Amino acid sequence: MNRLELTGLTARPSQVWGGIRLVPLVRGTPVEGLRLHREVYAGSEDGVVEVGPRTHYTAYIPHGFVADWSGEGAGTAAYGTQLAAGGGAGSTPPSTLRMPRHRHHRMAKRQPGDRLRFLPLHLALEGYLSLHFGGPSTAWEEWSRQALRDGLSPRAEDAYLGWSVRGLGDALRVFEIHPGQCGVMVYAADALAAAFVVPHPEDYRLLHASLVQDLYGELVHQYAMYGAPVAAFGARIADGPGLDTLAGLRAAAREQEREWSEAHDTLFARELLDTSYSFDRVYRMGSFTLWRFLPPFLRNGAGQHIGETVTDHKGRVAYLKTFRLSEAQIRRGHLLRALDAADWQLARAAVALGATEEELVRRIRAAGFGALLRARGRGPYNTSILRGKPR
Asked: Whose CA is closest to 34, among 62, 84, 89, 73?
């Protein structure tokens, strides 16, 4: 398994609100044996997760998802949920409030019965932040004492709440949910911002509004803020034989929908579906498996995404949530992969990257990793990285 397969999901004509395009994803048949619902952390969205010995992930965490493979169906849909006053889509963005921290034990934790609580998106973001987190494995003279002692700890990346992505909240509120809808592709200025898929239409109805509480990358925020309105989908049926009856018109309209679905999968969503990922298994849930994945960090100008997914025994996607990386985040991932492949020897890494050692040092400093380098006659570097704190 190295690609995402959206078998069983069909893209419906897009819904456009300014620069935001929503593409509904519909299942003909829900995924049997798995349900998904939300566990709300009202009043304590500023969360700290213990991910290992003396290692913590800190972020805005408004809720967790609970995967239920007990087979009890809709009767367990409300398990673990809470009602919070003022929690509607139009309430004040939680990022403006000061709240106590909620402490979580692990990104994914088994609950009583056949249930697993995991922290959506943060599972993927923690995987990106911990990419070669240990730093140099050998005490090469180029690296500072801090690098050899602490590696990349602490480490941070910035993200924006969906509340601040211009037009997203309005789009989610205005457009109707399709019958059988189990997911959505979110685009900002026609750049893929996020993909969200769940096993059952009832799960999606409950979780649809939660997209404004997700985290989005800097590029998505900029595209939504400054991008021009995008063109809405419109079916164009040319005059011809068979269009003089309602059945003929219906068939022609459905052909337009089919063509749109094919165009979406081969053009709009190509960067997500045609990429080869590295998958890390997080938890096995009966016949389902929870994974998180990282892209190849290629410097080819295409958008790249991290995320998490639940697949069945055939590799079909039951759940999916993605985060689009910025160009700077792709560069950092590319640089860390190159350094690790070269065993953190600067000379070897420079050759692999087609650069001189001096150029590589400049790239390391520009990426925010200057504190890893040994001071060279100019005093210690001042770069400070705090792990996991979103904007």
From this structure: 73
